[in-house]
Amino acid sequence: MSTTIRLNGAFDLQRLTSAIREKGFPCNVKITGTRRSLPQNAMFHMWCEEIAGFFIGRGKTSFADGTAMDKDSVKRNLKRTFLGHEEVSDIDLRTGAVDKRYELRKTSELDSGEMHHFLTQVDSWATEFGIPLTHPFDSEYMELAREFGEAA
Fold first, then answer.
1. pLDDT at 12 over 80
2. Coil, helix or strand at residue 81
3. pTM: predicted TM-score of the whole model, two decimal places
4. 122 contact partners, CB below 8 Å, separation of at least 6
5. Whole-angstrom Cα distance, residue 120 to residue 148?
């Protein structure tokens, strides 16, 4: 079983060293930025509302399964489309039985780079289908897009 250690600063390096001594090699290290930001999350929510409004404005008030066309349903379906599911295990504490299931990945668990990638996928999809989305010039999304050479 793998061990995940989040380092929040140089002072946490001792925890990493201890884990390597305990678990040994080989090991995987993933270096990421900070968690997705609140402005990134706010933009995603704004886009979900804009997408729902786009479809409702064209008379599409529900998805094919009958679910209402609203911000929350759009959000869930975008996450399913571009983030997918992850396997989680639940343990019955009385019997020890382990049940594995899949649940949608949570944007709150993405780092800022992963969230930017997700937003870029949503933005590309919306563009492909002619869905206009708001792109404030001074938004974190646009700043990162310019930094990554994705926007002028």
1. no
2. helix
3. 0.73
4. 44, 47, 78, 82, 133
5. 11
Q: How many CB atoms lie within 10 A of CB 141?
A: 23
| 29 token code pair | 């290290």
Angle 78-115-48 from CA coordinates, rounded to 5°: 35
Cβ-based neighbours of 89, under 8 Å, separated by 6 or more: 98, 99, 100
CB–CB of 37/140 below 8 Å? Answer: yes
Burial class (CB within 10 angstroms; exposed 0-12, middle 13-18, buried 19+) of 105 = middle
What is the C-alpha to C-alpha distance for residues 43 and 45, in angstroms, rounded to an integer? 5
Average confidence score pLDDT of the chain: 88
CB atoms inside a 10 Å sphere around CB 74: 23
What is the separation, in whole angstroms, between the first and last Cα of the chain? 45
Contact between 49 and 127 under an 8 Å Cβ cutoff? The reply is no
Q: Give the separation between CA 9 and CA 7, rounded to whole angstroms.
A: 6
Record the tokens describing residue 116, joined without a space.
Answer: 């930017």
Q: What is the pLDDT of residues 125-140, one digit of tens each?
A: 999 999 999 998 888 8
Q: Could you read off the pLDDT of 39-48 as tens digits, one per residue?
A: 999 999 999 9
